[in-house]
Amino acid sequence: MVVVKLVARRLIAAVLLLLVLSLLTYALLALSPGGPERALLGDRPATPETIAAIRAQFLLDEPFPVRYWHWLSQALTGDFGTSITVRQPVISMLSERVNVTVTLALLAAVVTLAVGIPAGLAAGIRRGGRLDRSITLVSLVFLSFPPFAIALVLLYGFAIQLRWFPVYGTGDLSHYVLPAIALALGPAAVLTRHTRAAALQVGEQDYITFARARGLSRFGIWESYLLRNSALPVLTIAGLIIAGYLTGAVFVEQAFSLPGLGSLLVQSVTQKDIPVVQALVLLSGVVVIVANLLVDVAYVIVNPQIRQGRA
Amino acid sequence: MTDLLRVRGLSVSLEERRIVDDVDLDIDAGETVGLVGESGSGKSLLARAVAGLLPPSLTTTGSVTMSGTELVDASERLLRTVRGRRVGLLMQDPFTMLNPLKTVGAHITESLPRGLRRRRGEIEKRLAEVGISDPRVASRYPFQLSGGMRQRVAIAAVLAGDPELLIADEPTTALDATIQAEIMQLLRSVQKARGMAVLLITHDLRVAFAICDKVQVMYAGRVLETGLSEDVARNPRHPYTAGLIGALPVLERRISQLVAIPGSVPRAADVTHKCAFADRCPQRRPDCVETRPPLRIVADLHATACLYDVAPAETAPPGDAVEHAQETPALGKPLLTVAELRKDYGQVRALDAVTLTVQPGERVGLIGESGSGKTTLARCVLGLASPDGGRIMLDGLDITYPHRLSASGKRQMRSLVQCVFQDPSTSLNPSMTVGAALAEAAGRVQRAERRSVDELLDLVGLPKKYALLRPNRLSGGEKQRVAIARALAVNPALLICDEPTASLDVSVQAHILELLRTISANAGTALLFVTHDLAVVRQITDRVVVLLHGKVVETGATAAILDEPTHSYTRRLVASVPPAPVTFREERANA
Questions:
Q1: N or C: which end of chain B has fewer CB within 10 A?
Q2: In this complex, which of B91, B143, B161 lies closest to A215 when CB atoms are compared?
Q3: A172 shares a domain with A294
Q4: Considering its fold, how many domains does chain A have in total?
């Protein structure tokens, strides 16, 4: 009951947030330099006829709220209009490329989890040891290296020198390995540090000592004491990490010439293709908000204190 | 009887620095032994060593055997078979001891021996053993239970492994007075029913004497005295034990002069080659600091690490002070009037029509357990919480809603009422020197009436050079004195003391109480003394107000209420205090 109420509250908040985001996104067009007509015209000749056609097509003579509502109701059905440069429906451009980015992000998430959590736990348990110090140092390096720099180093080492992986383009999964690693190392470093801090904090708790004093097996203490209790603080940064993938993908896709949403964003921004930019901004907003919603729900499920409704 | 636990020459050090120094301890099967000591005495480390739970950074020498099995430097695999099944450890704080993500039932199941885990009704049986008859508790999470219930659950979890020896490390310190008594009662009955050996670690001599067969007094990492409870209580053979007993505030009467042990506990490493207590000992002789006095047997089963017999106290046995103030409640305009005060936190009514007065210079005790509203009341009077109804008048000033006061009204209020908090290590700013903290507080007063830092330090009996130190260089008792000096800087008419001795060791507690008594008597400062400790209340207050669930249930002269409580709750509270030990000397003096 408490869970349903809580999720419902978060859901309402998420919808409100998305509305605000969509409003700002739509305002992009109205605020574009030279006015909306020029932006929508792109490289077509600016004759009175074309301008009139555009004004009619985008309802530019109507007041702002009417235009916004028109755009939003179309966007909700998946219609973000037509790209100015390619003259293609925006939605079909997105759907062509979404697979690339989703594959990349999923693979990166696997790498992040597979590296970050074990490394963080290992460092946290042997606090101050050699392993802890090296893990902390390495995570600092990856924390301060931007993803495109990591991408270049990986490309040079593993694709050009060792020739283990293709240099660019799409195809089978091997095309995604290097980009996913480049995308994952930064977030993995963040995750390592948080997991380490959480494990340190949990390791000092009385309930761990009390569990050991009752002769529980090492595995039992690891599983149901250390891991589950460390999961709570770590979960809270998951939303942050997912947002990190979005910005990282912009650079990494560019570096590996992957035709994903990130490279599309770079392209459409340089070409001032406003309908595409609007769709992408709204989409990333949805991803971040939904991710955070899922994190909140997961937090409630893991934590009985919220699940049972604190008195 | 057979030796169950045998500790011989146990020393624990951290990087060459001794923390526990050459300790022996024997426990027979079914025996209850009390390990008594103040903070820093090494008693908790000794317990951890016996449970095989010392952190690897500490080096241990000597021998700890459980029915012949050596535990020092034993493998983790061997230790795991000992922990839980043969030695159980119950820790201090029930609020942090249980896994917040596991239910009560899961805690018990995981501690049961493998064969019993699936047996039906086992959890109910185990819960019933610790006095939890409601089987639904098994599916609750720790945060849904009260402190006392959690400690019962923890006891059930420890007992699930059916240990031969239960180590209870200050098992009631974090609990309310009446709950403390219940838990002690429970430990005792479980011990009897199971015939289990218990090692009770406590700082409270009264508790140890009341329920242990033997007591062992530890100080600065070593044993100073050991013997049967009755013998040690009646006839302490070490000046430290005698001093501790003398420093205990008693419930039954008011003592004219509370005697504290001067100084504070040294670090074990600093006193390895002499008597650890010599620096604070009233009967020190030159040879006390030449060698380390060995434990010598003075009577059957009674040994002391003092070279000499305990000299009778220099002053006559402290007599009873006249509890005069209570007989004649001062008439006239009260300093503080709280009328029909109400305060809600969400659904919970923290204060329900509380009415009380404090006369100028009067010392009023506010008694109640956690959740009774005593701290909320103190916070309202201090202007730190805003009440939902009622009135607070302080010296003619309406301070019910302090944020509505004018700037000068606020200033006036601050110089009328000040507070001393429970834990001086968190109430003092660690980055400020003592002098700076005091000067800052004194700076609130008009220049003409301002007291200097030296004056303030002198007032609480600290040397002037302390002004240059930061709080981390001071002991707990010294920090609390600085906190008191800071509160007195504005010369308040009312001083609120929120459990000011609860976090202090017994031997320094008396100092602080005596100091507060003197200050109040000399400067005419009224005290509102918030506490759960009835013996402390007896020593320091003229009148008490008993709070229960936000309501005043009883009020009157301290002596009258403590000697003849009328409300059932007050009666329970009084009954929960273990009797003060009557020493042999006092018996003779009274005869």
A1: C
A2: B161
A3: yes
A4: 2
What does the pLDDT read at residue B327? 43
Residues A57, A150 within the same domain: no
Helices (H), A31-89: 35-41, 48-57, 64-76
Band of pLDDT at residue B2, cut at 50, 70 and 90: low
CATH code for the part of the protein at B336-575: 3.40.50.300
Q: Which of B83, B99, B143 sits opposite A207 (nearest CB)?
A: B99
- Name the pLDDT band for B5 (thresholds 50, 70, 90): very high
Average pLDDT over residues A190-206: 90
Q: What is the domain partition of chain B in residue ranges?
A: 3-86+163-236, 336-575
Q: Tell me if B3-86+163-236 shares its fold with B336-575.
A: yes
Is there a single domain that holds both residue A64 and residue A148? no
Residues 6 or more apart from B205 whose CB is under 8 A from it?
A: B36, B215, B233, B244, B245, B248, B506, B581
Mutate to test the interface with A, among B97, B98, B109, B158 (most CBs of A within 10 A): B97
A151 within domain boundaries: yes
Instruction: Check pLDDT > 90 for residue A240.
Output: no
Give yes or no for residue A38 having a pLDDT over 80: no
Mean pLDDT of B570-574: 88
Structural domain including A295 reads 94-307
How far apart (Å, rounded) are the C-alpha atoms in residues A239 and A287? Answer: 10
The neighbouring-strand residues paired with B13 are B18, B59
Topology (CATH level 3) of domain B3-86+163-236: Rossmann fold (3.40.50)
Contact B84 A216 (CB under 8 A): yes
Q: Is B151 on the interface with A (CB under 8 A)?
A: no
How far off is chain B from A231, nearest CA to CA, in Å? Answer: 11
Task: Point out the least confidently predicted range of A54-63, A131-140, A232-241, B237-246.
Answer: A54-63
Q: Quick one: A227 and A178 in the same domain?
A: yes
Q: Quote the minimal CA–CA distance from B191 to chain A in Å.
A: 18
Residue A138 lies in a domain: yes
Distance from CA of A121 to the nearest CA of B (A): 19
Q: With a cut of 60, say whether residue B234 has pLDDT above it.
A: yes
